[in-house]
Amino acid sequence: MLIAAHMSGLIDASEATRGLDYRCPACQQPVVLHHRSQIPPYFAHHPQTPCHLAGEGETRQHLLGKRQLATFFSDWGPVTLERILPAIQQRADGWLDLPHPIALEFQCSPTSRAAVAQRTAGYQRLGCYPFWLLGSRYAQQKLNWRLIERFACWLTGWDLCLLFWEVDRRRLRVAHHLRQTATGTYVSETAWVISLSELVAGSTQFKTVVQNPGQKQYRAYLNQALRRATPALRPIQEALYLTGHQVTGFPDCLMATTSTAPIFGQGLILWRIILTAWIEEQADMTFVQLAEMSQRALSVVNGQTTAVRFDGQPVFRREQRKLLTILTQAGILSSTVQGWQVHGHLKWARDYTDWLENDEKNGR
Ligand SMILES: [Zn+2]
Fold first, then answer.
1. Most CB within 10 Å of its CB: which of 39, 65, 123, 342?
2. Residues 321, 324, 327: CA angle, nearest 5 degrees
């Protein structure tokens, strides 16, 4: 920690001298000033007296980053380092005392979804907006759902985004317009921001060209994954097997080349395939039954609509409506007062080879 209690006030580690009585402002236990050559000075608890408001272990990155972030955000007002919040039993790395307060969390060490959710909920109880700024450990990761579900948030001008603080270059990397291709790849745009006004301004150059594979390419990919018995595809193939279908033979009209919010796990198309196969097994279904089936299909493809900081349900419902429109236009579905009536099934190919033969026959 950078701030300790001393006499009747607080003292910054950079201004402290060794050997005096310093205490943790949260638990009032004695803390020791550490002064090493590679790491800026900081206070630490004795290992025998752990703190109930322990933050993450202090590293050079975390210590430097906290101060840099305090400077970065100071255009909005004075930033208090390591603000103790007794009401929610949390210590914010940085705190801006605004009408709508802002908390800064510089996350360098691993943390669970539950911990992020708990801290975020705590800040929300105080009417405070938390910024989660991620350290190098997270910056090195390829975009993935675990990262997105814990830390992604909506910011004006950036859409759904992740914020990475680069200590060595004192700048913010914004991975913005986070999306997912219809085949399941997570994509984003990148911008580097060196001032708060740039962050507020939003992205200036934004051109999302999401590369979605074509239909033939995607089927070939699925075919190869099946042959290799890729574990991720197993639950999907198992679900389809019971309906007499193979994933590579999915009906043409289920193909999509759009991108969506990143909630579809292994991809929008696979979700469409499973849900359609299940719908075709029904004679009719209520709206509730359909919604449940749709949700189950989402879990088969490892999709999730709830994240700590955003709700994917609206997007999910929109995609569900789109699919129902496709199936209605294809003539296998019509709406009734209570739900939906099913009139048959779409044309599925037996497998990839069968689809290729038909494809050639039809001269596509
Ligand atoms: Zn303490």
1. 65
2. 155
Short-list 161, 185, 159, CA closest to 173: 161
Q: The pTM is what?
A: 0.90
C-alpha 326/C-alpha 1 separation (Å) is 57
- Chain center to CA of 85: 26
List pLDDT tens digits, range 293-306.
999 999 999 999 99
Compute, in angstroms, the gap from residue 172 CA to the centroid of ligand 1: 30
Phi/psi for 117 (5° steps) reads -65, -40
Report the amino acid identity of residue 250. Answer: F
Sign of the Cα torsion 337, 338, 344, 349 reads positive
In angstroms, the CA 103 to CA 110 distance is: 19
**Whole-angstrom distance, CA of residue 179 vs CA of residue 118:** 25
Count of C-beta atoms within a 10 Å radius of residue 199: 21
Residue 177, both tokens: 């317009």
Cα of 184 vs centre of ligand 1, distance in Å, is 44
Measured in whole angstroms, the distance separating CA 213 from the mean position of its chain's CA atoms is 23
Question: How much is the average pLDDT of 237-248?
Answer: 94
Phi-psi domain of 277 (left: phi exceeds 0; alpha: psi -120 through 50; beta: other): alpha
Distance 87 CA to ligand 1 centre (A): 16
Please give the radius of gyration of the chain, using alpha carbons only, rounded to the nearest integer.
26
C-alpha 240 to ligand 1 mean position (Å): 55
Q: What are the phi and psi torsion angles at 171 (to 5°)?
A: -145, 165
pLDDT higher than threshold 80 for residue 129: yes
Helices (H), the chain: 60-72, 113-125, 136-139, 145-151, 196-201, 215-227, 234-241, 268-280, 287-300, 313-329, 352-361
Residue 360's pLDDT is what? 86
- How many Å apart are CA 276 and CA 344, to the nearest integer? 11
